[in-house]
Specification:
339 residues, ten-stranded mixed beta sheet, 10 strands
């Protein structure tokens, strides 16, 4: 009898321990369960981790919107300090929960210069090669800076050469980091549809694309990239600022485009990338609508894109100004739960 009781106690202890570990791990990310809408049954995984443009604020806002208004299950991952459990965008070596990509129907990537351990990086690489759709935002063009020359995923580094020029950003999204084309912090971005692209599903109902971040430089886009939006450099930090004179706007740089990527599986993924998308950029209805439309387009759900598609922000959203070290301190993933 004593042996049987001891055995039961051990089993109960194992269950409690396992369940407790699961709860502890789950505290490092947040999931919004969509209830109804065209996205019901589909899973979007948002991967944040940049130390300048507040992806840790932008992506939870987009995820709540897509879950509440459109029914998608949305998981948001963060750069987390293992010691405190707090979000720390400057912590470049840890994004827990990347295994969520195994069940994702879409990955939205907003990273900058990450150097993730191989066991975490594997989930991103496997997803990249799966043929499932990918969206990149702002600094995603230079998502990785893997410093260890012996790392099996070294080629994904933003300035890699040889057969994988420009790393993950250029090969998958269409370009890597080049430069600030507009004056950082002084010249904002007005988005103008590229010639013949006004009727593209991603731009359906979109007007007033603007962001207070500057236009990024582009050398050349890879593969079958097609520019959708050009970035007009504005001489000021408001939407009504006038375009700057001179060569900065002649020609204008692409700030949003589509392309495809064929991974190792042989399957071809739809890709949308924008060098806009900082948390403050998404206050503008036009910029936010472009991002929402792009998610539907990436998952081949163009029929669901209506000119009046609901893009209303869920809850309070007062994004922090971009800048290094300017993130809100002491925030944990659970602080982004729906109220």
């Amino acid at each position: 009898m004593m042996l049987k009781t001891a055995t039961i106690s051990i089993i109960v202890l194992m269950i409690v321990t396992t369940f407790g570990a699961t709860l502890s791990a789950a505290e490092h990310w947040v999931t919004y369960e969509g209830k109804s809408g065209p996205g019901k049954g589909k899973h979007i995984v948002f991967v944040s981790g940049d130390d300048e443009y507040r992806s840790e604020e932008a992506l939870p806002m987009l995820a709540k919107l897509m879950a509440v208004h459109h029914g998608f299950k949305c998981t948001v991952l963060f750069a987390v300090d293992e010691k405190t459990g707090e979000i720390n965008p400057g912590h470049q070596t840890n994004i827990p929960g990347l295994e969520a990509l195994e069940s994702a129907d879409l990955a939205v990537i907003f990273l900058r210069f990450r150097s993730l351990p191989e066991d975490q990086m594997k989930y991103i690489v496997d997803y990249t090669n799966s043929g499932k759709p990918i969206i990149g935002m702002r600094t995603a063009t230079h998502s990785f800076n893997i410093r260890n020359a012996e790392d099996k995923y070294r080629k994904y580094t933003f300035n890699f050469g040889d057969q994988y020029q420009g790393g993950w950003g250029r090969q998958v999204l269409g370009e890597t980091w080049v430069n600030h084309h507009g004056a950082h912090g002084r010249e904002s971005t007005g988005g103008i549809p590229a010639e013949g692209k006004s009727d593209h599903p991603i731009l359906r109902g979109v007007t007033g694309i603007w962001g207070d971040t500057d236009v990024y430089g582009i050398r050349s886009l890879t593969g079958d990239s097609e520019p959708l939006v050009l970035g007009q450099v504005l001489a000021g930090m408001t939407p009504d600022a006038k375009p700057v004179d001179g060569k900065k706007n002649d020609p204008m740089m692409p700030v949003a485009w589509t392309k495809t990527y064929k991974g190792d599986s042989g399957n071809v993924a739809r890709v949308f990338n924008t060098t806009m998308g900082a948390a403050t950029d998404l206050v503008a209805d036009g910029t936010r609508r472009m991002m929402v439309n792009s998610m539907f387009w990436a998952m081949e759900m163009e029929d669901a894109i209506k000119a009046d598609l609901n893009i209303k922000i869920v809850g309070a959203y007062k994004p922090t100004k971009f800048g290094f070290g300017g993130f809100k301190k002491g925030i944990k993933p659970s602080d982004h739960n729906l109220e």
